[in-house]
């Protein structure tokens, strides 16, 4: 990093320290972080299972067990790394940025290793190799993702600017998703079959893009808020942290809301396949659903900052969730729609819950401030890792919900046309059930989550005065 460049556009902000003013450079740098994450994360999510089954010959059940074990291990790795980060002191380049730079190199190398295939070895070797390389990659992913996610709370203390960072992060993930979905299939498949050499080529390509993005994130981002634990002579301890976490009402409410929201996403994702394939008889319409999910996020992104500036994160998010509840509830009472009509109406619901996805990282940064106000401890890594831990546990536990729900309504794989009661059950899983689940999320955010716009602004102001003093 060029020190002369960093001395431009400086301003005095806190405790007399000179730092560059928050701006587009920070936003783009933070976007690059999740672009780097998702260049490879999306590739793994979409194609690793088919690589394991079709190239390495591992059974789908064994792959499922591996993924569940790995998710639980990753959750523990998140907590461990978050606590480790919070015990480190800020250096020349901050507290979090250096770890993004240091660990990005072993992370992308481990990612490429997952897709190296040596022909002619035993099934036992391939399974062991999958366990070692996949769990290694997941662990190293934590070492980059935890400091990256934690860094948002120290880039700026302004609640509206934090919302902008959250939306730019989502935009980075969306760009990576579009890029991987468009490019990867053209590289990986030959004659409609996955090719071992080509998927290694794709992994190498996305690893290079990922590494370049991480380096860009490191160079363009600036940490402006430093730890005040030592200045206040407050020592961080596990017991003090745990007491603070248990008293942190915003954190607990967001953890519960996010877990339930994850159940909603998993249920929708699973039910939609059967809804369009069996109920509407139009599996091709699923591609339109995928497009609309991206489009609604892209429409919501430029609206997020001005809406939050005027109304607040809690207020905007809860309104969007209520819109989703109304749309999916209404769809339940419109069973005679065509597939395209259903997608068009449900897109309004997608637009509603897009704001939750856009705001969630900004919610976490506010919760970190609340924890500091409550305990006197600045523990960005710990709070972010607790949130990440809950998401991964939720993914592991909630993974079977879709299959269980489909089985519960009587789906029979041996029938070419499902019974009418089963079709009705599938339609209910795609409409009324999501509406009820999202109603619970709405009530948590609207009635239980305490950080309204005014309280968030007051919290930021109180912490600024405390730091300056």
TrEMBL record:
It comes from the Bacteria. One of its GO terms (cellular component) is plasma membrane. It is a multi-pass membrane protein. Residues 250-469 form the Major facilitator superfamily (MFS) profile domain. GO terms for biological process: carbohydrate transport; sodium ion transport. Its main location: membrane. Keywords: Membrane, Transmembrane, Transmembrane helix, Transport. It is found in: Cell membrane. InterPro entries: MFS_2 (IPR039672), MFS_dom (IPR020846), MFS_trans_sf (IPR036259), Na/Gal_symport (IPR001927). This is MFS transporter. SUPFAM superfamilies: MFS general substrate transporter (SSF103473).
